Amino acid sequence: MRLIAGQLGWLSSNASFSLIVAAVELIPGGVPEFLSGEDVALFRAEDRVFEAMVDGWRAQMLARGLTVDSIRQVTSAVVRFQEFTNDYPWSWTAHDVDEFFAMKRSGQRSITVSTLRAYSGAIRGFCSYVCDGRYGWLALCERTFNDVPSQVVFEWNTPRHTTDDARSPGRRALTKSELQRFFDAQDDLVDAQHARGSKRWLPALRDSVAFKVCFAFGLRRRELAKLEYVDFAPNPHIPKYGGFGAVQVRWAKGTAGSGPRHRTVLTVPEYDWVVELLRFWLSPQGRQRFATADRSTAMWPSERSGDVVQRTFDRSFAAAREAAGLPRELTLHALRHSFTTHLIEAGYDPLFVQEELGHTNASTTALYTSVSSNFKQKSIQKMIAQRVNGADTSGGDGNG
Questions:
Q1: What is the pLDDT of residue 6?
Q2: Could you tell me the mean pLDDT of each successive run of 10 residues in the chain, 400 residues long?
Q3: Farthest-apart Cα atoms in the chain, separation
């Protein structure tokens, strides 16, 4: 109980310790004891009950194993919604949600569809929690306010995950020519820094290797930054790849606030050039040139500390993108989209690509895929040729 109470106190510095302990002593997330008495009169009852609801939701999410960061994000979203409505869960309506989302999508600082989806998921989750009779909030609200909470987020007022605008223009796949231009631009930056005798040439070399590894294994930005050289392993089915037949990704994106997940990404023949690149980088001519290389197992050491931060890759990507003359909206995540699209165009099974990416749903992988019109035309021509050849070899005369 001490651990949970301590975590709850750290999450909400405004919540009283007695409130937290009382909530934990019952079921996680249940109505605390100081609110359960029928003869208890509360000063500013609406505020006190709402605060207790949020604290109870924190306890329930901790019991479910969600991470502290995820809990902080979703509770913050619910508090913002309450502040916008200036009302309380037992009075919320679907119209409040519509107005809140409309406000968030209008104005100079309009939020993205993915952020809007995060807000809707947080409000939906909170409403599901307070509407669950096992936690006691329905009975408390009916007794105290003569009203009860209800679910206010539904399919018809929530952005769908499969909408076209869920895919940011900055995260589209690069064409093969764009990808080559980007890699060439980064390599040219390395050569230019080296020719000038600048000490920046080694970090530029590191980033050049990192971007190619990011593309070859379809990594996210955090997955790339957290990579360690001990994460690579052989694939017994392809011995020629040596110790670089697969990579264990230990910082993959979690689901529903579960924290980082693990997945294994296999080296594919389409991008097997990365094997030689990795051998070079882990040789004395690559990573070991950094004075900090022996301080940790980080794949990408920095000049002054153990490993690079994600912002370092963002800045380096932006410089190479500008040198290559690519659109400014492109981000590092575009390399992961490129990995997906180019494998699909090369004929890899979509389920295999989904497993490589670590996606739970095929619809998510579909959002990553933006095959070229040339690929679509070739696919149509291939199917037509198969049908024609099948008719020619069927042995029939076509009459019946």
A1: 37
A2: 36 42 58 70 83 94 88 94 93 91 80 86 94 92 91 85 52 89 96 93 95 94 91 94 93 62 89 96 93 90 75 92 93 91 87 83 60 51 59 51
A3: 91
Output the pLDDT for position 311: 85
Q: Which residues of 355-381 are buried (b: 16+ CB within 10 A; e: fewer)?
A: ebbbbeeeeebbbbbbeeeeeeeeeee
How far apart are the C-alpha atoms of 126 and 109, rounded to whole Å? 25
Q: So what's the pLDDT on residue 13?
A: 41
Q: Which domains does the chain have, with CATH numbers?
A: 2-166 (no CATH), 172-381 (1.10.443.10)
CA distance readout (Å), 133 to 19, 61, 136, 333: 20, 17, 5, 42
Q: Give the N- to C-terminal CA distance of the chain in Å, as an integer.
A: 79
For position 40, what pLDDT does the model report? 53
pTM over 0.90: no
